[in-house]
Amino acid sequence: MLETTSISLLFLILFILLLLSAFFSSSETALMSLNRYRLRHLENEGHSGAIRASQLLNRPDRLIGLILLGNNFVNIFASAIATVIGVKLYGENGIVIATFSLTLIVLLFAEVTPKTLAALHPERIAFPASFVLKPLLILLYPLVWFTNAITNRFLRLLGVSPEESSNAAINTEELRMALMEAGSLIPKRHKKMLVSILDLEKMTVDDVMVPRNEVEGLDINANLTDIIKQLSYCSNTRLPVYADSMDNIIGILHVRKALHLLAEDNLTKETLNGIVKQGYFVPENTPLNTQLIQFQRHRRRTGLVVDEYGDILGLISLEDIFREIAGEFTADLIDEDKDIHPQKDGSYLINGSANIREINRNNNWNLPTNGPKTINGLILEFLESIPDPGVSLRIEDYVIEVVQTANNTIKTVRIRSVEPQTGEILNGSI
Q1: Any idea where the domains of the chain sit in the sequence?
Q2: Domain 334-426 falls in which CATH fold?
Q3: Is the pLDDT of residue 336 over 70?
Q4: In this predicted model, what pLDDT tens digit does every residue of 204-228 receive, in sequence order?
């Protein structure tokens, strides 16, 4: 039959078959390249193309079976047509010519080009294609079922279940990557906050707590005049209340309630004790995301961080967690920070007790945070000894000079950011 068909008609049939081959190739790539989460969003909004595409992707084995059946059929048919054309034009030599010519044409125009286009714009290809593939799947279902029954049996021998959908939930790192690659779709500040929320599970309360030596507390055994004076000038809304020492915690005082008693001229140690709320204690290794839920569950805003022996390590508040998510809530500049003092040469004088995370956040630095919490601890861990003033060291991309030491601790350091380089120690050290 093909031998008696005109050359022009054969070329027309071949052209149509190449178009069909390009359709099947691009459909496969487009459907497999769809963003599943955007697809789900469009499906929930009632997008007909998204609904059909989602239905097809629910059983990828059937979809691939259908596309490959169609693609192989048109490619084999196209090969037969090309062979007939070659024989008619060039005799027996036409078989070789047709083989090489068709291979090149199929590769360029029916495989690479349509698949590249589909990978770049999957929705533009996948949604219209789904309107063709869905009824085609119904029409060819017996053949698709037969081929899938054989292939699925082989897959089960390999321990793979085709019925299981590949819509596995993404993990935290994948979600973080998706956020970072969102580009201008999400404002930079919102993106930073979302990433910070994901980071909460990596951080514990001792990473953001106020250290014990910096906790402002109220000694219930102090003179009443001193207590009133402290309450009048207190910068915090909640204070730990203790007897003589922070080791003897009584509870947490809401300063506003104490000032209300003071305004009524009814502030005594007895009335003060009456409004002190029982202390809420938090283990030091509690993840921040867990502690946020615990604050909500227990209706608390402040907790006392304790170690495994029950000793007080510091104070954690709801505001500390929010600060990790949203950044500072005040408009304070870096040069107003009590621990960080910028210098004219671009370096920073920083207190040894300064929290590394606070420094990173204020200066947009990347000092290591997976070990010690303070600059003093970081240097001591790195040197394994207490350095003398003037010793300089390099940790990652930062040169740190010890300026002042006292009482076996580093009081002040000078830090400047330098070009990326491997860690080393300078000025008279290793």
Answers
A1: 2-157, 203-326, 334-426
A2: 3.30.465
A3: no
A4: 898 888 888 888 899 998 888 888 8
